[in-house]
Amino acid sequence: MEGLMLGESIWLGWDQREASAFAVARSTCRQHLTRPIPIYGLILDDLQKAGLYKRPIEYRPSAADKPVMWDVVSDAPQSTEHANSRFFVPLLAKTGWALFCDGDVIFRSNAARLFDGLDRNKALYCVNHKHAQKPGTKMDGQVQQAYTRKNSSSVMIFNCDHPANRALTLDVLNTTPGRMLHRFCWLTDSDIGELDQSWNYLIGETAPIEKPVNIGHFTLGIPDMPGYRDCEFADEWRSSLNDWARGSRNIGA
Q: pLDDT (tens digit, 9 = 90+) per residue, 140-175?
């Protein structure tokens, strides 16, 4: 790659229902970093108060007797608070490379490696998942939604300086159905670079891989939810949560 792209940032999706997941994501990300890259929480409430996020959200009843967040623009449910706000990251980061990850991930290696050797002719990098989406529910009863490039947008690196990403204006971000944004509708296939599958390993979905998992993604449910307590990497997740909770003190040490 010719020249040097200045500016690197990491953005993690926040959902108040999954505060424990966010704690693990942020702490394990910071734990493995080998250079000082800022880590930000992407908080829907902040975007709304700033007048940036104007997509109307309703809370509708569901068969599981729990209110479901409903994105009115998409006329569809959204399973997390960062379902659509993730696409605001280039606008927020403004320049450089910006990594977005769902809040229900565990970093198992140095995320700084993701920024090394990127081609600035690409507008976005992601893992190109090709698995068939299983029907049913996930998390706390959320209905699985099927769409093109499902889960590819759960870990993605934006080239905030790429001309193609200028198409993500506030008007587009607030009026485009989420299923279109998740398909990267503002990009051509040639604008999209591919990350190794180890950087977005879908726990319970992705077939086992031979290489080490760099980012494990609890896309179906985090280990403190019923039905997912014994999923892959669950013990590692709980250990990381305990490490975060105790901070620098280790009782009995």
A: 544 445 446 678 999 999 999 999 999 999 999 999
CA distance readout (Å), 135 to 75, 91, 138, 157, 220? 19, 34, 9, 28, 12
C-alpha 3/C-alpha 15 separation (Å) is 37
Set out the domains of the chain in order of their start, with CATH numbers: 8-245 (3.90.550.10)
- 74's tokens: 């998409």
The dihedral formed by the CA atoms of 81, 151, 197 and 232, expressed in degrees to the nearest 10:
70
pLDDT (average), residues 28-53: 97
Q: Are 152 and 127 in contact (CB under 8 A)?
A: yes
- Amino acid at residue number 111: A
Phi, psi of 198 (to 5 degrees): -65, -15
- Nearest Cα neighbor of 91 from 58, 46, 29 is 46
pLDDT tens for each residue of 176-233: 999 999 999 999 999 999 999 999 999 999 888 999 999 999 999 999 999 999 999 9
Residue type, 45: D
Tell whether pTM > 0.85: yes
Q: Which among 103, 102, 124, 129 has a CA at the least distance from the CA of 114?
A: 124
Is pLDDT of 33 > 80? Answer: yes
Beta carbons of 144 and 135 less than 8 angstroms apart: yes
CB-based contact 135:203 (threshold 8 Å):
no
